[in-house]
């Protein structure tokens, strides 16, 4: 009987060696450990054995059963590992196939740039002030110290609106965000007419110029203007504030220079150039080999404008500056055609 | 404005300053140098990686290779009729030079020249511009054979030297050019191209730029004409002129005041009129160095007399006009000439010297005599009295005109000119006399004429030269720098202000060449600007504001709109920005309006009104991108509602549009459904909940929204008020656009109404107890709105039903025609763990309520 058990064990272990997949393992288990397997037949026949034989054969059969079970367990592990290794090998992807896209929304590049500017200005304590896009000549020009027929109006070709009986005060599309200065000063001054409070605001918005639409000129464009009014504001403050702003905007290492310039609503006036951020000042096509990019115009608020806003120029002073987010984008991204901005071609917009 | 460096040197010593130094100083002081064009002077050499400062062009002249030479004989070329061989001396050696220059061709074969011709000679190996190339292109002279004759060098034209585009002949230098001198030393130059701001018009001339430079460098300004006496000041280049001028004056006898009278009818329009006379002139070309300067300055040399008026204008800024005196005299019947300045009569005509007959209006000012109009004052002369080759006597006008009037006239007749540019920005009347003096001197020098003694000078309206008081405190308060009164005075004196110092204040009298200084607070700002410029903007420190902080008002509208933009972007919509300008025709594809904010001066008919519909603009962009697989866009901005003869209302709108595939295709994802009504609705729900707006309801769209599909559109109401509308574009409207097949769903919101809805805050509690989920499907008539069923479930379930999600709408004959099945997934949640029995009880209640209210049947 014991020999028979040894024989069962031997042939079962032998056949286990050739089993390589999970279904064959099941077949092996049924035929060697199943109810009708030779080993189980031995267990079933134990009752027919003599008292002496029964424990010997019984323990022998148990030993074989444990041996076969643990061999099976081992084998299952081996087969599973082999199967996994095989499937890992077979399942590798072409990682160069493109990923699946999803529809995402984006802000218009002008909005993105406006936000960039405004978030820096917000850090610097400037609040947003917005005002209307269709204005009167009085607010767009006259109160900003542009008299009628002043040559400075040539710099701002204007769209006029059809209207009757307006005399010297026609309706027009604002040519700059500066009319907001008048609106804002008057609104702030109203808070306390005898002691108008200080002002620090940023004025973003769409402006219009009567020009032909070409790669270099557009009929509408955004502008952001800054305005400071207070009792202790100097030209040195203007320089410090705008240099700080320019370095936040274009990099802490950027060289900045102030050139004397002319705007009717500021005096002294200046234009601010920043070292070309495309070439680092070495000269390139973007800066026309000058190494500098003109980024904003600024100046001390003209006394006439302060007066018109309700602030006494003998007591208050201030400065203002303006810049164009589209121009900044064109320089930064080397966009050579301004018409892209309002063309709204998704192939352009999706690059931002 | 183009300023040659050589010309500046007439007024200021520039030794030790490079062209870039000069350009930098001027630029920072407000005379912005746009470009430096080199024509002979050494150019800066940038090492690799070195920082640039100015846009530069042009060439430097090699001192060894480019020299002044003299042509001694013009010989025939043995094998070519059109070429000549020059016998030339370059100061060291004789050379044979081949040329085809037409302007010396007539001397061919005339033997040794009695008076040798001075020329610009380029030796072998010189690099200069190729005179025969279409575009500016450098070339280097190489030894070669042309028609059997060896050629290695050349005599140059202006184009080859980078002076101008002249290539009609070689340069014929003035007779006193020293043979053998390097050309760069004789006439090497660089031109500063300066943009002149309106307040800098006084500097639109060489003297003005030199004055600025003198102020900025602290160097002396050498003036040609003394402001006080009007007499010529002896300088290097004018020494010759002076001697000759005095000689001419001595010979002349009759004073111009005996021959000419002037009457000014309106001093506001013509504050001053000065006239001088020169006779026995010979019209001929100006000296070469004058022609060269004029060309470098961007003007075409014409003749000595015309050149003298232009040269004087470029030199000191006073535009001049030369009349043929004999024409005036003959019009006056050989009696005294009497000039009158007056406003034109409406419809009066004048033929200007460009040959055009111009119809004038009373807004134009004329220079007339007793028989009629002669010239458009300050803008353009008349044809009849213009200088011709036969002119022998010149009456030279230097006048002051009203800037606004000149500006209007030049615009009205579309006649921009160097003169009107200057007059319309203001030329100080004091300059009129100096201008005439200068013009006469130049004419005498270049034409051999004799200047009649005296000037006719009518000066009825002297401008105030304001006196402004500026204190050290003003400088500190507005510029932020500490200067003593003496320092302030010193800075202003450099710009020719007359200053007196009294303790801490300076009284500054405006010099009589500028009109840009005001009085009072304005004058103070004007003068402080001059202090800052003269001091140097670069020397003013950068400080941080030390003022008290402003009130915090914020901008709730802007902040709210930015929030809406963020949500919309998160929902997958691309923001666009459209033109505000459109046309009624364009908008009428979507919706027709009767009245618009219309432009009086549009650039084109299709951009002649301000938009009324934001959605119409948006749809144009959708159309433009129609070939894209999927489009989802929005815009936020104003529309413009006209108000008669006043500024319009500018309500803020949001427009959205979606069309095309709902999801992106990929290499293994081929199909996607297209956007429809419910895609838009889902986004609107998220937008409104993101903006924290509760009480939102959707009802079939009002019939007045005619551009939407009547069955697939809805009004959006918040607390019963309509704030927007959305749906599928009406098929007939869609047809008018070049769209693809898939439906176009759109939405438009009144942002002002939406923003004024009070937001609801607060969040639903998140329970710790496990929820019970249950699905329930009911069959109802088609006419029962889903919203009603959901409302009933919510009402009946009360707080326990925390979520109701419609997950299926099903129609089939089996459930009956005209019926639909609505399947909901319900979430029950209680303050404790809920039992199945409790859940079943609520469910039974809900079903009963639905059976009772809307005739629902539970679907098994
Ligand atoms: Zn650059």
Overview of this protein structure:
- The complex is a heterodimer of chains A (352) and B (860).
- Chain A has 352 residues and is an alpha+beta fold.
- Chain A has two domains: 2-90; 109-349, BirA Bifunctional Protein, domain 2 (2-Layer Sandwich), CATH 3.30.930.10.
- Chain A has twelve helices and ten strands.
- In chain A, the strands form two sheets. Chain A has a seven-stranded mixed beta sheet, with helices on both faces. Chain A has a three-stranded antiparallel beta sheet with strand order 2-4-3.
- In chain A, strand 7 (256-263) and strand 8 form a beta hairpin.
- In chain A, helix 1 (2-17) packs parallel to helix 4, helix 5 (109-123) crosses helix 10 (325-333) and helix 7 packs across helix 9.
- The longest helix of chain A is centred in the N-terminal third of the chain and has 38 residues, at 53-90.
- The radius of gyration of chain A is 43 Å and the shape is rod-shaped.
- The model of chain A has no long low-confidence stretch (mean pLDDT 92).
- Chain B contains 23 helices and 43 strands.
- Chain B has six domains: 2-60 and 190-217, Phenylalanyl-tRNA Synthetase, Chain B, domain 1; 66-187, Nucleic acid-binding proteins (OB fold (Dihydrolipoamide Acetyltransferase, E2P)); 236-458, 3-Layer(bba) Sandwich (Phenylalanyl-tRNA Synthetase, Chain B, domain 3); 467-531, Phenylalanyl-tRNA Synthetase, Chain B, domain 1; 556-755, BirA Bifunctional Protein, domain 2, CATH 3.30.930; 772-858, 2-Layer Sandwich (Alpha-Beta Plaits).
- With 860 residues, chain B is α+β, with helices and mostly antiparallel strands.
- Chain B has a seven-stranded mixed beta sheet with strand order 29-32-35-39-38-37-36, with helices on both faces. In chain B, strands 6-5-4-7-12 form a five-stranded antiparallel beta sheet. A five-stranded mixed beta sheet of chain B has the order 14-17-20-21-22.
- At the A-B interface, helix 5, strand 1, strand 2, strand 3 and strand 5 of A face helix 10, helix 13, helix 15, helix 16 and strand 29 of B.
- Zinc ion binds at residues 276, 278-279, 283-284, 286-287 of chain A.
């Amino acid at each position: 009987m014991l020999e028979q058990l040894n024989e069962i064990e031997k042939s079962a272990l032998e056949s286990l060696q050739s089993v390589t997949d999970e279904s064959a393992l099941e077949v092996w288990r049924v035929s060697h450990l199943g109810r009708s397997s030779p080993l189980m037949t031995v267990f079933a026949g134990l009752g027919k054995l003599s008292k002496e034989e029964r424990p010997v054969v019984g323990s022998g059969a148990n030993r074989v059963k444990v041996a076969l079970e643990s061999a099976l367990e081992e084998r299952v592990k081996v087969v599973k590992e082999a199967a996994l290794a095989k499937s890992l090998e077979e399942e590798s992807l072409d990682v160069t196939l493109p990923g699946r896209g999803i529809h995402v929304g984006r802000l218009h590049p002008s909005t993105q740039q406006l936000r960039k500017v405004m978030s820096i200005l917000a850090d610097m304590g400037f609040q947003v002030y917005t005002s209307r896009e269709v204005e009167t000549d009085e607010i767009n020009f006259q109160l900003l110290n542009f008299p009628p027929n002043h040559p400075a109006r040539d710099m701002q070709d204007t769209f006029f609106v059809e209207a009757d009986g307006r005399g010297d005060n026609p309706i027009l599309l604002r040519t700059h965000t500066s009319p907001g200065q008048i609106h804002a000063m008057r609104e702030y001054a109203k808070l306390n007419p005898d002691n108008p409070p200080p002002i620090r605001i940023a004025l973003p918005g769409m402006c219009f110029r009567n020009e032909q639409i070409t790669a270099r000129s557009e009929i509408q464009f955004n502008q952001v203007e800054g305005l400071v009014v207070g009792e202790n504001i100097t030209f040195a403050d203007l320089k410090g504030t705008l240099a700080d702003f320019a370095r936040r905007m274009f990099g802490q290492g950027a060289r900045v220079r102030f050139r004397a310039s002319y705007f009717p609503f500021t005096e002294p006036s200046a234009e601010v150039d920043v070292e070309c951020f495309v070439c680092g000042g070495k000269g390139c096509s973007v800066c026309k080999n000058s190494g500098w990019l003109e980024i904003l115009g600024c100046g001390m608020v003209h006394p006439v404008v302060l007066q018109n806003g309700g602030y006494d120029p003998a007591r208050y002073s201030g400065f203002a500056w303006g810049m164009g987010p589209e121009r900044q984008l064109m320089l930064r991204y080397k966009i050579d055609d301004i018409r892209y901005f309002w063309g709204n071609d998704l192939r352009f917009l999706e690059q931002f | 404005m183009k300023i040659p460096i050589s010309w500046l040197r007439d007024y200021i010593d520039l030794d030790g300053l490079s062209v870039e130094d000069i350009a930098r100083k001027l630029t920072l002081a407000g005379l912005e140098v746009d470009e430096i064009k080199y024509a002979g002077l050494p150019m800066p050499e940038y090492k690799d990686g070195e920082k640039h400062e100015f846009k530069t062009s042009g060439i430097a002249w090699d001192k060894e290779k480019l020299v002044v030479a003299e042509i001694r004989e013009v010989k025939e070329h043995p094998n070519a009729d059109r070429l000549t061989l020059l016998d030339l001396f370059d100061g060291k050696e004789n050379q044979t030079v081949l040329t085809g220059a037409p302007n010396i061709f007539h001397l061919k074969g005339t033997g040794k020249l009695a008076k040798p011709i001075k020329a610009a000679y380029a030796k072998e190996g010189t690099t200069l511009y190729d005179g025969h190339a279409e575009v500016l292109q450098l070339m280097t002279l190489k030894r070669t054979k042309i028609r059997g004759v060896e050629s290695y060098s050349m005599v140059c034209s202006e184009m080859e030297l980078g002076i101008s585009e002249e290539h009609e002949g070689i340069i014929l230098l003035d007779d006193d050019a020293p043979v053998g001198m390097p050309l760069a030393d004789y006439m090497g130059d660089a031109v500063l191209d300066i943009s002149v701001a309106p307040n800098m018009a006084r500097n639109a001339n060489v003297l003005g730029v030199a004055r600025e430079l003198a102020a900025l460098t602290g160097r002396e300004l050498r003036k040609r004409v003394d402001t006080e006496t009007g007499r010529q000041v002896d300088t290097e280049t004018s020494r010759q002129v002076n001697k000759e001028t005095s000689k001419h004056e001595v010979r002349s006898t009759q004073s111009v005041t005996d021959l000419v009278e002037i009457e000014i009818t309106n001093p506001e329009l013509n504050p001053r009129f000065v006239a001088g006379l020169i006779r026995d002139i010979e019209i001929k070309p100006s000296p070469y160095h004058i022609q060269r300067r004029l060309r470098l300055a961007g003007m075409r040399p014409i003749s000595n007399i015309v050149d003298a008026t232009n040269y004087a204008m470029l030199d000191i800024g006073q535009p001049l006009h030369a009349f043929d005196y004999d024409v005036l005299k003959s019009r006056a019947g050989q009696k005294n000439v009497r000039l009158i300045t007056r406003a034109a009569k409406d419809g009066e005509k004048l033929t200007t010297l460009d040959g055009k007959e111009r119809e004038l209006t009373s807004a134009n000012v004329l220079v007339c005599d007793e028989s009629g109009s002669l010239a458009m004052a300050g803008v353009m002369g008349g044809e009849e009295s213009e200088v011709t080759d036969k002119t022998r006597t010149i009456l030279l006008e230097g006048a002051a005109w009203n800037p606004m009037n000149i500006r209007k006239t030049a615009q009205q007749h579309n006649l921009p000119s160097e003169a009107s540019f200057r007059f319309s920005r203001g030329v100080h009347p004091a300059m009129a006399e100096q201008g005439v003096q200068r013009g006469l001197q130049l004419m005498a020098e270049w034409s051999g004429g004799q200047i009649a003694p005296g000037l006719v000078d009518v000066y009825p309206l002297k401008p105030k030269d304001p006196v402004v008081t500026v204190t050290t405190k003003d400088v500190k308060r507005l510029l932020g720098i500490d200067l003593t009164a003496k320092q302030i005075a010193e800075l202003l004196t450099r710009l020719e202000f007359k200053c007196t110092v009294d303790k801490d204040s300076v009284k500054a009298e405006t010099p009589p060449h500028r009109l840009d200084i005001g009085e009072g607070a304005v004058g103070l700002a004007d003068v402080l600007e001059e202090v800052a410029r003269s001091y140097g903007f670069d020397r003013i420190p950068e400080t941080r504001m030390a003022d008290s902080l402003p009130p915090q008002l914020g901008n709730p509208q802007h902040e709210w709109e930015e929030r809406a933009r963020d949500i919309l972007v998160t929902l997958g919509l691309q923001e666009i920005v459209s033109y505000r300008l459109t046309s009624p025709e364009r908008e009428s594809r979507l919706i027709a309006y009767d009245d618009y904010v219309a432009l009086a001066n549009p650039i084109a008919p299709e951009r002649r009104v301000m938009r009324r519909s934001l959605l119409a603009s948006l749809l144009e962009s959708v159309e433009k991108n129609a070939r894209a697989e999927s489009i989802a866009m929005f815009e936020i901005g104003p529309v413009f509602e006209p108000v008669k003869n006043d500024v319009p209302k500018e309500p803020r709108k949001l427009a959205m549009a979606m069309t095309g595939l709902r999801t992106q295709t990929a290499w293994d994802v081929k199909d996607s459904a297209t956007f429809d009504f419910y895609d838009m609705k889902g986004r609107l729900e998220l937008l409104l909940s993101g903006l924290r707006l509760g009480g939102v309801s959707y009802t079939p769209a009002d019939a007045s929204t005619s551009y939407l599909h009547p069955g697939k559109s809805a009004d959006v109401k918040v607390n019963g008020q309509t704030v927007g509308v959305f749906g599928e574009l009406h098929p007939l409207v869609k047809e008018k656009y070049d769209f693809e097949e898939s439906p176009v769903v759109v939405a438009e919101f009144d942002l002002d109404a939406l923003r004024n809805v009070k937001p609801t805050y607060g969040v639903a509690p998140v329970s710790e107890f496990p929820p019970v989920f249950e699905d329930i499907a009911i069959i109802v008539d088609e006419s029962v709105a889903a919203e009603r069923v959901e409302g009933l479930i919510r009402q009946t379930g009360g707080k326990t039903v925390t979520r109701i999600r419609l997950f299926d709408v099903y129609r089939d004959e089996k459930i009956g025609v005209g019926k639909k099945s609505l399947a909901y997934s319900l979430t029950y949640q209680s303050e404790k763990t809920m039992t199945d029995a409790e859940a079943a009880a609520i469910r039974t209640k809900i079903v009963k309520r639905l059976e009772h209210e809307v005739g629902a049947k539970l679907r098994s």
